[in-house]
Amino acid sequence: MSMAGPTSFFEVGHRAMSAQLVRMNTAASNLANAGSVAGSEDQAYRPMRTVFEQELDRASGLSSVRVGGVVREDVAPTRRHDPGHPLADENGDVWEAPVDENAEMVEMLEASRQYRNMVEALSTAKQLMLETMRMK
């Protein structure tokens, strides 16, 4: 296995940071739609999840993550009887987005921590490279 060069390490870091940004944006979208209602079950907002895939760089042997996609969760919206609501159906029901705000906040915090950890790792790698160059 060959030693990974600085470029490949920084590329892996960039991919990981980009993936965490998508994860944070997905959770933010879910939070923005929490409490939203629709006139039918089909029209109700469903939370989304970011799906990560592992990617192996054969040249360097480094493994990284990339976003494989963003998918809608298969979770039913909550039916609420609210006949005075302008979107209420013929039965007087509206359909509320099944977003767990606490879970979304945890998702955002975890993505933020992972992003920050990668920034710190890249900063340390940069400092080590500079020190190595100074020693030569």
TrEMBL record:
Transmembrane regions: none
Feature: compositional bias, Basic and acidic residues: 73-88
Keyword annotations: Bacterial flagellum, Cell projection, Cilium, Flagellum
UniProt-listed InterPro entries: Flag_bb_rod_N, Flg_bb/hook_C_dom, FlgC
Keyword Transmembrane helix belongs to the record: no
Pfam families xrefs: Flg_bb_rod, Flg_bbr_C
Keyword set includes Nuclease: no
Domain Flagellar basal-body/hook protein C-terminal: 99-134
Disordered: region residues: 73-93
Family: Belongs to the flagella basal body rod proteins family.
NCBIfam families the UniProt entry points to: FlgC
Protein name, per record: Flagellar basal-body rod protein FlgC
Organism listed in the record: Qipengyuania spongiae
